[in-house]
Design a protein that fits this description.
Length: 71
């Protein structure tokens, strides 16, 4: 019976480091995915801000042309 307990403890101890490595690997993968998502979101935001700026500039030009035409 004592040999069985020792074998169980040894088997359990041998299995534990594998679980830790897998968890760390999974966490690293998840972090890498989140980083890519964050970068993609920042790029999308930057592009949207650029388009909004261009639209605002176009609107200002149209208002200026309209004001010049009324004089």
């Amino acid at each position: 019976m004592r040999k069985f307990n020792v074998l169980v403890v040894v088997a359990f101890a041998a299995a534990m480091p594998g679980c830790g490595v897998e968890s760390a690997s999974t966490a690293a993968t998840a972090a890498a995915i989140k980083q890519k998502e964050l970068e993609a979101g920042r790029k999308t935001l930057s592009e949207a801000e650029k388009k909004i700026g261009q639209s605002m500039e176009q609107m200002q030009q149209n208002v200026q042309k309209s004001a010049d035409g009324e004089k």
